[in-house]
Amino acid sequence: MQQYTRYEKSRIVGARALQISMGAPILIQTTSIDPLEIALEEFDKGMVPITVKRKK
Questions:
Q1: Count of CB atoms within 10 A of residue 55's CB?
Q2: Do residues 31 and 45 touch, judged by C-beta distance below 8 A?
């Protein structure tokens, strides 16, 4: 798994939480109903379908 800065992590998790709150399918099994908690769980398990492109 790629190493992310804290800014990248917060942007990814925030964007994914917004997607979930708007009705996107959840990619993990969880008992949580909070979109932010679900997005954090997905991020920790490496299941977030978002990538980061960096300039070299």
A1: 3
A2: no
